[in-house]
Amino acid sequence: MSQLPEFRRHLVRPTKLTKRLANRVGVVGGVVRFANACWFCVYGLSMIASVCLFTLKDSLMFEIEQKYYVEDCDQLVQRLAAEDAVFVSEKANSDTYYNHPCRDFVQTGEALRIRREDDVPLVTYKGTKRPGDVKAREELEWRLDPGDKDGSHMQRLLDVLGFREVATVNKQRQTYRIGATENALTVTIDAVDSLERDGNAGLFAEIECVLPVATPSDEQIAEARSRVSGMAGRLGLDKPESRSYLRMQLER
Known about the structure:
The radius of gyration is 25 Å and the shape is globular. The longest helix has 36 residues, at 16-51. By secondary structure, it is of the alpha+beta class. It has helices at residues 4-12, 16-51, 53-56, 73-82, 105-108, 152-160, 218-234, 245-250; strands spanning 61-69, 86-99, 111-117, 120-126, 135-143, 164-178, 185-197, 200-211, 240-241. It contains eight helices and nine strands. Its EC number is 4.6.1.1. Residues 61-251 form the CYTH domain. Keywords: Lyase, Membrane, Transmembrane, Transmembrane helix.
């Protein structure tokens, strides 16, 4: 009976050896847990792609686009009319962006968002940017409805997989199309709530050319960039902005 307290002291006071072993096990355990988390993310995203394969087949594309500051919106609309631009729609966009748990999209230049466009949810992934003045990168996009009418299921899935919500960008967007459908340029005029200037929402225009392939040739990219830059000149857009709306909002 007299040895029992001494025995307990040995139990609650680990030796240096047991401390070192515990530390090593803790480090190894942390690495294993991190690796499992990364694997779980990859597995989860592969499941998402499998479930949405029927829409992804038609959503693989390569976008070439450039953003510009707009000083005179009325003048821009007049110049769009002179280019025979067709008004397509005006919608409210609410874009919620996420960051990957195992790599930083800020560093890689990628983007993942859930867009609610007049309450219709879409998922968009944008890959890393090709070198050049005009943005060029792969884009995947598909609608979530009718199974996920408000995007809450996808949002919950991203949360479970460890994706972190970064911020939400709200804007009002007018969309115009110039040219034939198979070779069209899309021009959008955006009023971004969080980028206001002089008490008004920040006004920007984006010119986009979409190539319906995931890996276009260098010649195709160069030709599309030339078309975007040429149209910007004809529309009087001479103040390009390379940052995304998300980056601009976070840097304010």
